[in-house]
């Protein structure tokens, strides 16, 4: 682990650069230890994959002093060490893989030498871990994509990727929470919103949770979209 100053009021803590559940849980545990201190000098904690960003009030503490405190906290024992696996939430996200939405499916089918049906089956039959939320509010970085579907991002990003697009970028898959530029390979679309600023909890899904995609038809997509708009649809979830 390394502790690096980031500007005058932040520390970047980095673990080995790997996509690892063990590292993710170690970061979550460290974050819980810090939060338990209820320090007013901390403004924000944010982590993704193998990094934890700690933003603090630089007027109240020096970097080296805070770094030393953090190192001591990391070594502390913590009674909640097993809580993450016991309380993990698995979310079921409906996705329509119709060619109307999965505009890069024909391209991937040729590139990966797989039928479109095989791509859909492989993608929708895996369990994905949420390693972080970033790039856009509510954009989930998901690990666990089958190596059979790994594929580089597009050479030229699209200027407009639709909200709800489900896509593949390298060894990851993700969902665009709003219309935006993007270079990932688009394979489907979900009719639900991953981020809603109007709600008390804009993003229900948290780092450490898991995702299972459920393949739905175009008709089911339209029905769910209407139900979601009318606030009559609730994401399915369970505890692992």
Give the name of the CATH superfamily of the largest domain: Cyclophilin-like
The assigned CATH architecture of the largest domain is Beta Barrel
Radius of gyration: 20 Å
Based on CA inertia axes, which overall geometry fits? elongated
H/I helix tally: 6
Spatial strand arrangement across the major sheet: 7-6-13-5-14
Mean pLDDT comes to 89
Head-to-tail CA distance between termini: 29 Å
What number of domains?
2
Q: How does the helix and strand content classify structurally? A: alpha+beta
CATH class label of the largest domain: Mainly Beta
Please supply descriptive tags for the structure shown above:
Cyclophilin; four-stranded antiparallel beta sheet; 2 domains; 240 residues; 30% strand; Gyrase A, domain 2
Condensed summary:
This protein is of the alpha+beta class. The protein has helices at about 20-35, 65-75, 85, 105-110, 115-125, 220-230, and strands at about 1-5, 10-15, 40-50, 50-55, 90-95, 130-135, 140-145, 160, 165-170, 170-175, 180, 185-190, 210-215, 235-240. It has 2 domains: about 1-85, Gyrase A, domain 2; about 90-240, Cyclophilin.
């Amino acid at each position: 682990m390394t502790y690096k100053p980031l500007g005058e009021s932040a520390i970047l803590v980095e673990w080995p650069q790997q996509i690892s559940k063990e590292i993710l849980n170690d970061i979550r545990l460290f974050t819980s230890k810090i939060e338990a201190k209820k320090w007013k000098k901390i403004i924000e904690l944010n982590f993704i994959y193998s990094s934890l960003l700690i933003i603090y009030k630089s007027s109240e503490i020096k970097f080296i002093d805070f770094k030393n405190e953090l190192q001591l906290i990391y070594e502390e024992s913590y009674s909640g060490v097993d809580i993450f696996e016991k309380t993990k939430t698995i979310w079921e996200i409906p996705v329509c893989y119709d060619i109307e939405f999965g505009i890069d499916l024909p391209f991937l089918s040729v590139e990966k030498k797989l039928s479109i049906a095989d791509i859909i089956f492989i993608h929708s039959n895996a369990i994905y871990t949420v390693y972080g939320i970033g790039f856009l509010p509510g954009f989930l970085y998901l690990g666990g994509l089958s190596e059979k579907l790994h594929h580089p991002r597009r050479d030229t990003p699209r200027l407009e990727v639709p909200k709800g697009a489900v896509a593949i970028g390298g060894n990851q898959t993700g969902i665009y929470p709003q219309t935006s530029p993007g270079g990932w390979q688009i394979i489907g679309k979900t009719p639900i919103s991953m981020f809603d600023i109007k709600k008390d909890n804009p993003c229900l899904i948290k780092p450490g949770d898991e995702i299972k995609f459920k393949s739905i038809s175009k008709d089911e997509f339209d029905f769910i979209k209407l139900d979601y708009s009318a606030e009559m649809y609730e994401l399915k979830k369970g505890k692992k």
